[in-house]
Design a protein that fits this description.
By secondary structure, the chain is of the alpha/beta class. The chain is built from four helices and nine strands; from the N terminus they run H-E-E-H-E-E-E-E-H-E-E-E-H. The protein has two domains: about 130 residues, Beta Polymerase, domain 2; about 30 residues.
Length: about 210
Amino acid sequence: MDLALRDLGDFIADTLHKEVTGTEIRLDELMVEAKRDSIVRVLTFLRDDANCKFRQMVDICGVDYPEDAERFEVVYNLLSLSHNRRVRVKVRTTAEVPVPSATGVYSAANWFEREVWDLYGVMFSGHPDLRRIMTDYGFEGHPLRKDFPLTGYVELRYDDEQKRVVYEPVSLPQEFRSYDFLSPWEGVLPGDEKALEADAKGEGEGA
């Protein structure tokens, strides 16, 4: 499968050498890096070419790298049922520079692009109805940005006693925890790293 994906990646890179900046195989998946202004051309080719036939758009998601000049990465996940393959197409952009909308290529891109706009603030030029889809009307900011504050905003919920929707300040009732990425069972599981540490401490105390 790796060889087939590598051949497909080389084919895409050779055919779209002006639109694609690179391809790679990572975790048994083909990833294509495209120029932002060429994304419609790239997606159309991947959908229509007989060697690709990526006719289904699984989703569009965003990634935030605040330290980069082009901090946002827009990721398009496509599926070819004919060839039983997947491809991941990536473009980079900023909060000020829009990405051309893919709604003319995949109708499913409509709500996916609205979600990326709502949660990350990435704009899509040519979108027929770019408005919030996940957050409330009048919500300020984009909550999946890495610099979005955890407090200071309001949230809404339905209050059973008042029989209406109420707005309240966002609160974090759970204390922050320091995770060590080991077992959550605090050493009670035989063979667990924490169990070994607990046994070592017990032996040391009894000595």
